[in-house]
Amino acid sequence: MCGIVGGIAERNISEILIEGLKRLEYRGYDSAGLALIDHHHVVRERQVGKVANLVEAVTSRHLHGNLGIAHTRWATHGKPTQNNAHPHASGEVAVVHNGIIENYQELKQELQQLGYVFSSETDTEVVAHLVNHALKSTPDLLTAVQTIVPRLKGAYALGIIWAQQPDELIAVREGSPLVVGVGIGEHFISSDQLALLPVTNRFIYLEEGDIVRLKRNSIEIFVNTVLTHRPVKELDATVMSSSKGEYKHFMLKEIFEQPEAVQQTIAQALDAEHLKAGFLEKADGAFDTIQQIQIIACGTSYHAGMVAKYWFEQIIGLPCQVEIASEYRYRHPVIVANTLYLCISQSGETADSLAALRDVQRHAKQQHKTIFTMAICNVATSSMVRETDFHLLTLAGPEIGVASTKAFTTQLAALMLLVLKVGEIKNSIAADLKQSVIQALWHTPKVLNETLKNDAEILRLSELFVEKQHCLFLGRGTHFPIALEGALKLKEISYIHAEGYAAGELKHGPLALVDNDMPVVILAPKDEMLDKLKSNMEEVQARGGELFVFADEHSDIHAKDRQHVVHIPAVSEWLAPIIYSIPVQLLSYHVAVLRGTDVDQPRNLAKSVTVE
Ligand code: F6R
């Protein structure tokens, strides 16, 4: 997704901006650019493709300046061309923008009538012209921006500079993430704090509606033209480590970090045999009153929610619904009092999930219904964490690979902790079941480590997928969502068409797809559905399908003709979805590497989807 970096310093800012853009590459983009103020003029460079192309152009032009803004663009309005790349300029004003200006057509017409000529197909260019136009009535960039912002409809973050005021940068946050990086005698902005880690670990997290004026020695934040104060927060070292180390890709590194990430996530909540006394204590009263749970999420996080539905209902008898945020937000759902609305998100900035959360909050207030909101999230400073009543952090550390791996398994661990907590407060979980789940949770990192030892075997199997066009993933019960997740992983990074199905649904349609050329991946933990699953495997084999089975070591499933089996260590059926995520991640990763795709930044995708 688009990325913004900007800053004002005594030193040359262009290298800092470029390093920032490189750090945003993981988010996905198709063009990049920067604008600097040099000798009272805007100088601009924009290139299609990788940041490396921009670096080459900036170096050959020897561009430098003390004030600048830069951007990686993920095309929404108009193709990825040089003209559509940011920054956009009007006169001596330059603008970078994340998000969408919904009323840009109407504004564009108005500006064209005033004589402004558009050189791009983007919605962003209207902002540059509007600011330039406003500067005809005021000599001050901040005032000009404050005048035009109320006219912009949509969700956006902006960075704006003007050659006539070469000592200040104006930034706006309205529905799209933006942080201020606090330095000494220099300050920065970015849509993602990771971009600024080489220059600072001190951040101000802007709130919706904030307009900021950065000068070298001051940071002023305005809400509706009134000066306000926002705290400066310091990041700790774990958030700051984001290198690939010995691994070829971030995705592989993150797959292998899962035992540690899950361990960290559970250790915040459990001591040897119990939930810690202070764990989610603030929510005790709310958990006591809730009658049901509504989970809202997107993509992989939605799959985590699907697993949790089984757990909430089977372990503590609490009704639970799960819905994709982009559907939920538009179907005018009935708000039910005494519901816990639970958003799950790695980034905490996903536009659809945030919009659904805000709608729920607004409607509940209008209808005078008591509800509670909660986030399970990997980013402590995210909008979602700040806007919910309670939160539980997944302690996965930064996830850089676009395909989510450790965020998913830590979400599952966090969800199980929540099941235990709500069950304990409601007194709806049997003591022995609670004990065995806690023991299984503590055991999970060890089993994850053992499961990762299957890597070489899975690599061998992945060679059989390289030429395939399609693939089916099958599971039952809590492994139906893992089948969906396996299919999502394979399609997003290897570009092989894949479908996940509940194995019992096979004969209601998808069995027609099965032939000699169709690999079928089966998730076969040892649970009460195993015998039923074995029958589903027979159905596939009888039609010539080739089976790739990840099976419990005691499942009595063995390799035979057109049936490849990787044995997975025995694990409690409750925690098995965490363990069976590993082989599907590894399979997708190796297939993608063998097919030569860009594993960490797959085509057309972005890490944090901050537009609708
Ligand atoms: C897939 C993937 C996406 C995200 C989805 C939601 O590997 O990463 O499907 O899960 O975009 O993102 P978050 O969890 O940040 O809300």
Automatic annotation (TrEMBL):
One Gene Ontology MF term: carbohydrate derivative binding
Transmembrane segments: none
A GO cellular component entry from the record: cytosol
Oligomer and partners: Homodimer.
Main location group: cytoplasm
Source organism per UniProt: Acinetobacter qingfengensis
UniProt-listed Pfam families: GATase_6, SIS
Chain's role: Catalyzes the first step in hexosamine metabolism, converting fructose-6P into glucosamine-6P using glutamine as a nitrogen source.
Compartment(s) where it occurs, according to its Swiss-Prot or TrEMBL record: Cytoplasm
Upper lineage: Bacteria, Pseudomonadati, Pseudomonadota, Gammaproteobacteria, Moraxellales
Record's keyword annotation contains Transferase: yes
Protein name (Swiss-Prot/TrEMBL): Glutamine--fructose-6-phosphate aminotransferase [isomerizing]
Family matches, as PROSITE patterns: GATASE_TYPE_2, SIS
